[in-house]
Amino acid sequence: MSGGASITPVILSGGSGSRLWPASRSLNPKQFHDLACGPVYGRSILQETAHRVRGKGFNPPLIICNHEHRFMVIEQLRDIDMTPADIILEPVGRNTAPAAAAAALMLVRDDPEALMLVMPSDHVIADVKHFYAAVETATVAARAGALVAFGITPDRPETGYGYILGGAPLEDVKGCSKISRFIEKPDAAAAEGFLKTGGYSWNSGIFVFTAARYLEELERLQPAIIAGCRQAVAEGRRDGAFFRLGAEAFATIPSNSIDYAVMERTKTAAVTPVNMGWSDLGSWASLWEVAVKDKNGNALSGDVTALDTADSYIRSHGPLVATVGVKDIVVVAMDDAVLVLAKDKAEEVKALYGLLAENKRKEIVSHLTVYRPWGSFTTLKEGDRFKVKQLTLNPGAGLSLQRHRHRAEHWTVVDGTARVTRGDETFDLHENQSAYIPAGARHRLENPGRDIIHVIEVQTGSYLEEDDIERFEDIYGRE
Question: Which of 111, 183, 312, 404 has a CA that sits 20 to 30 A from residue 189's CA?
Fold first, then answer.
């Protein structure tokens, strides 16, 4: 982006990504995944979003996320060599209006004229030149007092998005108009009519406004939200690289979106229509829409063999997936779950997710591989009174000094050197060496070297869940 005052990107990294299950889980939602939809294969959607708003015209981003996702956020930003302005931790989800308010309150403390570009972390924008042009247009309007939404120029009668109807052009701001009205997700006939009539845009959930102007309108329209946010910021505390909002105060705030809380009620709402190759990746069908396809219209990823298969999305994160004689389907295979559905039923995945939640299925919470600030662990096998994991420890990293009441552990080093603390002794284990940690013993596992190490952990005992842990020391500030 060129010229003008700098703007602070506020990246909202919340949600569970339920419509993209089984790839997306509550502890590892879609924004942290590489879904092969960005210009650089291997980047997650969050990384693509952050990378898009770096450089001239942009301040370092301010990230708002669930406290359970904090270490994934900071590690993914480090992977692309980006230092955020701050990472704000929400104790509970309260939708986008309170999240943006907390960010605005923190921004105006340092700059009363701060500009905000509020954007979700899990959207795809293929045409960044048009995106930058829209940001510049919206910035001019925001400086004049408008609260600006990005409206996506529709190319089909989509029923999965809300719509914005543009009104009179905004004075002295070319390419921006007042918002006449917001429309909820329409039926097919209404969506067809919008497309034919013109003047309608999809509501992208991307906004530009000054922090002070947003707070002013929130004060007028939603005093309970702004009062709770002020208290949550005032009672917040610094936790290393993170800022934790006051938990009790934030929990009392009404849950509401920017659209419902402010944009649909303010008299200064405006829209900047833009055609920028946008998708909210809201379903497996939308992923098929943006993916590169073969001559048969198939989007294939991973270990997949497709015979007499057309117009399908087939993705494997592990086992071989083979299809014969099918069309317009979605298959997503993980190590612990497989989803198969008709492509036109992609919106039903959210209902399926709800059913799995009712049945308390752990497959909606995490993958077999779970990421921690020190590395990761992968569950290889589990049964009655035992569980086998592979631990991956980053250079210089270490688990907390801890103990377990109900399980013992046996560590075997696969490669490298691990440092073990067990009770009052500390010693090193080399390749093929092992150590036994009895239940109740204080212990710690560390990687003192410069290379990643792998350790096989065998747990045995009457209770093997992750909440059987008592921490005594932790360099990552976990309670």
Answer: 312
